[in-house]
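for ur thesis appendix - DNA repair protein RecN. copy paste whatever u need, i formatted it the way the template wanted (i think)
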Amino acid sequence: MLSRLTISNFVLIDYLSVEFSSGYTSVTGETGAGKSLFVGALSLLLGKRAESSMIKQGATKCIIEGEFATIPQQAEQWLQENDLLFEGEEYCLLRRELATSGRGRCFINDTPVSLTQLAELGAMLLDIHSQHQNLSLTGSSFQMRMVDKMLPSLAPFEAYTNAYAEYRGAEKALAQLTEEIRRGKEEYDYNLFKYNELNEAQLKENEETELAEQEEQLSHADEIKAGLFETLSLLEGEGEGALSLLLQAERALQSVATKVSTLEEYAERLHSCRIELNDVRTDLGNLSESVESNPLLLEQVTDRLDLLNTLFQKYRVASSQELITLRDQLKALLQQHEDQDMLLQEAEQRLAEARQSMDQAAAVLTEMRRTVAQKIAERLTEDLHQLEMPHAYIEVALTPTDSPTPMGYDQVILLFGANGAKDIRPIGEVASGGEIARVMLAVKAMLAERDQLPTLLFDEIDTGVSGRVADKMGKILQSMGHYLQVIAITHLPQMAARSGAQMCIAKRYDEQQMAHTELTLLDAQQREDEIARLISGDTITEAARAAARELLNND
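the 3d part is after this line
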């Protein structure tokens, strides 16, 4: 709870330090006295955006400090996680400093922190509800948060949130993969064409070298055959052929080799030459038989070489081996594309599974919301009956959304009827300002019990109400004060009289006619005077005093 608020050099406030008690405290004051300054200072303390005009004229620095006692467990845990907890202490200090230089500073327990950190902790310590926020009651997002805050467990919502994230991730992955495949389709078709062309060519390594030799042989077959015939004739000629002459020479040398030992070696060498030359004659004979003029084969070889040369030029390579390498590379690329098709099927399957899981989680969440919505409707209807709306009826309806949302498959619509259930409509369409104020108070009272927020500040939530309704609203705030600290800025005497403590905001002028705003805790007599003023205006009558005493003594 807020135990002390200290303000210095803030707009019209020179210096102010006031202590707050637990329970319900009302804040009153004349119109224009500066009640908005009180709310503005607290808003700054909770992380609201600051402006240089907020610093009192003539001052160089504005300081707003709040002391919060008996901090809730959630806030204590946050302080521990951020190493900002005062060991052994059950209070917390928040401080905001504004300077004319434009450099502001934030502190938690005298430790410098960021504005974001100040706002995070502030949201756990105090909630400010302004009269303008009454309109948020008509918004679908507020109505959804109202239902979800009353859920007995966050597990279904967390399960859905995780499932929704999985689904969106799978959906995004599928879309990206589909786009990649779409962009690669033209490239795939071209690669497939090239691969088919190379594959159908039935390429062989170094094929062009063998074909070039074969073409040369076939192109000169008659000339080659004539040369071979002449060569064989010279080798085989009867009596005059090289082989015959070499045999004669070998025999002649052998006949005298027995006479000279060194000649025996030469005879053997001649024999070896004759054997080698005979092998050459045999091979040339076989070759001569294979060399034939074959125009058809020559045409086939020439066509094959032309094909290879065309492919060399087209793909800018110099050998069949390079074409084979390119073909294999294209095959790998095509395989990758085929793998993408498989990946696409897998991505579609993951998306379908994620959708099924999300549907199941959404169904569980919807069912729990329906149960909670019924209880909320009953609670709010009952509270409105106590706020002088005996025929009011509330229904919290759930309708399906057109598509999955981060909040589920549900849309919450708060339906209201001032005269029973037969003519209920969305609350923003039929409720007056005073009716919306009462519904919002009932909602805040319900949520306060659930949230266990230590302090709740109402800024003129009584707009549009008066008389007995104001008294009933005061009773609700009084009741709320039993389990949390309630501070209400009000202009209604009935609501002020129901508070356990009352403060008054007043504007005074110094000798130089400079305005100054003060906030004072009222004693019993001062409370009577202030409530009487709220009843009758600046001229306080005895009747107004009597009415004030009656309100203050009313149980």
